[in-house]
From TrEMBL:
Gene3D superfamilies: Phosphorylase Kinase, domain 1 (3.30.200.20), Transferase(Phosphotransferase) domain 1 (1.10.510.10)
Record's keyword terms, sorted: ATP-binding, Kinase, Nucleotide-binding, Serine/threonine-protein kinase, Transferase
PANTHER family: SERINE/THREONINE-PROTEIN KINASE 16, SERINE_THREONINE-PROTEIN KINASE 16
One GO MF term: non-membrane spanning protein tyrosine kinase activity
Catalytic activity: L-threonyl-[protein] + ATP = O-phospho-L-threonyl-[protein] + ADP + H(+); L-seryl-[protein] + ATP = O-phospho-L-seryl-[protein] + ADP + H(+)
Cellular component terms per the entry's GO annotation: Golgi apparatus; membrane; perinuclear region of cytoplasm
Every Protein kinase domain range: 32-305
UniProt protein name: non-specific serine/threonine protein kinase
Family matches, as SUPFAM superfamilies: Protein kinase-like (PK-like) (SSF56112)
Keyword DNA-binding set for record: no
E.C. numbers: 2.7.11.1
Designated gene of the protein: STK16
Enzyme class: transferase
Length: 317
């Protein structure tokens, strides 16, 4: 990776980004050493980089933009990050839009959290036949709720909340990430055409096994609001309690998630968790969105649940 890459995004994109030599980049006059690839998706990939000015590690997310619409979507993700400064929302450290031949890449420099995602933590526990203790579940859930509350207060909804979009820091505090699917909290649908547009958008941007029921078949006259996130939050809570999302296996087997989410939630029989935690889960996963609580109600429920006595850190199957 050689040569200077011109900044093409106007004032919002900040300073030009320059590839100074193989293995190093400079953003806003600060140099970063490329370490290795952390992961990649369909249209983006993430590299681990080290700031040569501060010795800290960062995650550099690169979003490939093939056309103007792609660039606008990448800019939207950048703008969503810039809206928030909260301990439970992953901050954006720097950004740039760079030319790569006839195409562009949006570059987002983010903090690197070595512990990884909540999903990785759940998987690690499950592999050891260990369930997460209730006290820890409540602590992580409370942090996720605080992040969501901040998003909802700004008039937005996350729309793609899932365990792989929650990072854990060294203090076990969760940080919400991947804000590219965020949009306005309240969407008023007044025609079949609008309903289909919202439905198609949700199919592309909202992960199927964590998608709220009202986004599978959008009614021609309805209001979609931020309580889609409450459903997804319930799925995340279920995952922490039982080691997988409530609809993960249905999707993996090729059965219809759209049909499954129309039925009342059933949870495994166990006495591992308190009735209050199970009630909290059930309240979040109400099929009718108008009967689903808002995030403030969920936070009140979390704070009302008395944590079990500490001492035993894990519960074995």
């Amino acid at each position: 990776m050689h040569g200077c890459l011109k900044d093409v995004g106007g004032t919002i994109m900040g300073h030009a980004l320059c590839i100074c030599s193989k293995g190093t980049i400079t953003i806003n006059n600060k140099r970063y050493l490329l370490i290795h690839r952390l992961g990649e998706g369909g249209f983006s990939y993430v590299d681990l980089v080290e700031g040569l000015h501060d010795g800290r590690f960062y995650a550099l997310k690169r979003i490939m933009c093939h056309d103007k619409d792609d660039r606008q979507e990448a800019m939207h993700e950048i703008e969503m990050h810039q809206l928030f400064e909260h301990p439970n929302i992953l901050p954006l450290c720097a950004h740039a839009m760079v030319e790569k031949g006839s195409k562009h890449e949006a570059w987002l420099l983010l903090p690197f959290l070595k512990r990884g995602t909540l999903w990785q933590e759940v998987e690690a526990l499950r592999d050891k036949s260990i369930f997460m203790p209730e006290e820890r579940i409540l602590a992580i859930l409370h942090g996720i709720c605080r992040g969501l509350q901040t998003i909802h207060k700004k008039g937005y909804a996350h729309r793609d909340l899932k365990p792989t979009n929650v990072l854990l820091d060294d203090d076990d505090q969760p940080l919400l990430m991947d804000l590219g699917s965020m949009n306005q909290a309240r969407i008023v649908v007044q025609s079949s055409r609008e309903a289909l547009r919202v439905q198609d958008w949700a199919a592309q941007r909202c992960t199927i096994s964590y998608r709220a029921p009202e986004l599978f078949t959008v009614e021609r006259e309805c209001v979609i609001d931020e309580r889609t996130d409450i459903w997804s939050l319930g799925c995340v809570l279920y995952c922490m309690m039982f080691g997988e999302g409530p609809y993960d296996m249905i999707f993996q087997k090729g059965d219809s998630v759209a049909l499954a989410v129309q039925n009342d939630l059933t949870m495994p029989e166990n006495t591992r968790y308190s009735p209050a935690l199970k009630r909290l889960l059930s309240s979040a996963m109400v099929v009718n969105p108008q009967e689903r609580p808002y995030i403030t109600d969920i936070i009140c429920q979390v704070e009302d649940i008395q944590p079990p006595p500490s001492g035993q850190d894990t519960t074995r199957i």
